[in-house]
Amino acid sequence: MNLILQSPVLSSAAVDRIVTICQAKRSVELNARAIRLEGITVDDHARTLVLERCAQDAIDHAFVPPGYRLADFRVLAMDMDSTLINIECIDEIAAAVGIKPQVAAITEAAMRGEIDFAESLRRRVALLKGVPASALDTIYEQRLELNPGAEAMLAAARRAGLKTLLVSGGFTFFTSRLKERLGLDAEHSNTLEIVDGVLTGRVLGQVFDAQGKADRLREFCASIGADAATQAIAMGDGANDLKMMAVAGLSVAYHAKPAVREAAMQSLSVSGLDGILNWFEDSALPQ
Q1: pLDDT digits (tens, 9 = 90+) for 81-133
Q2: Number of CB atoms found within 10 A of residue 60's CB
């Protein structure tokens, strides 16, 4: 078993403490922010110590088998809001008309799993009735940014032959533009109803929720002859991503809520999206 350690500031003293816990036979510096400890010895107690030490030192860690390869996967599925991008789009739409606190409170409760997502989305969208559609353009152009490492992660996925899928409880206005901008293979999300250039406060059709994300991942994998349970990577940050993550061969929590981190196979809490590349021996970031 190998252990990948990474952090924007990876101190040698912190690494040495973990080397001692794991009795690592060899360490390989992958780049300035990541190191691979090879031939480690870990039992449940040692894993707990590593988890505690990494939390104290703000280090992302991942136990991976030797020879772990990105090319062994065929699909990379991503949530959009607060995962691929830096904002919650619906909260920013609300901010444009001065009701962000009301909408953000519902968003947070939904992401923690305290409110059914479909109901929470309808309630939030209803508050947006009367917002000019031009506000969406302003948010896309001025507020929306990719999270750190997004482009490097996507480029590596393409080189390894993976197809990319963007699935979001957000809106097609944003997912469709990101698909075109980033060259993604597919996207799926919700559609805001717009009449005469104004949001009506309704979502068209059935709400695309947590079950929808899981179903869409399975369908996308089936369409290219891939097995979601062994060949898909699913990344997310909120409760709405858990069902999708549960059907994937590798689930990744990105700067996520505690319940999502606990459910995920791996997590990144201080690193960028390209941190996943350091887990794979065929895709680790260069020096």
Answers
A1: 999 999 999 999 999 889 989 888 888 888 787 888 888 899 899 999 999 99
A2: 23
Q: How far apart are CA 228 and CA 65, in angstroms?
A: 20
Q: What is the pTM of this model?
A: 0.94
Residue 59: CB atoms within 10 Å: 25
Q: DSSP strand E in 136-185: where?
A: 163-171
In contact, 123 and 106? CB cutoff 8 Å: yes
Q: In DSSP terms, which residues pair with 191 in a beta bridge?
A: 204
- Closest Cα partner for 187 from 109, 35, 77? 77
Percent pLDDT > 90 in the chain is 82
Yes or no: say if 280 and 68 are a contact pair by the CB < 8 Å rule.
Answer: yes
The residue from 57, 81, 237, 274 that is catalytic is: 81
How many Å apart are CA 42 and CA 23, to the nearest integer? 8
- Stated as kind and residue range, the H or E segment containing 193 is strand 186-195
Please name the residue that has the structure tokens 């482009």.
151
Place of tokens 């480690």: 40
Q: What's the CA gap between 226 and 260, in Å, rounded?
A: 25
Q: Is 26 helix (H, G, I), strand (E, B) or coil?
A: strand
Q: For residue range 203-246, what is the model confidence (pLDDT) as tens digits?
A: 999 999 999 999 999 999 999 999 999 999 999 999 899 999 99
Provide the terminal-to-terminal Cα distance of the chain, rounded to the nearest Å.
Answer: 23
Gap between the Cα atoms of 277 and 190, Å rounded:
30
Catalytic residue among 57, 79, 209, 241: 79
79 as an active site residue: the answer is yes
Tokens of 252: 């990744």
Q: Measured between alpha carbons, how far is residue 247 from residues 136, 186, 232, 251 in Å?
A: 32, 18, 8, 8
**Beta strand ranges found along 152-185 (DSSP E):** 163-171
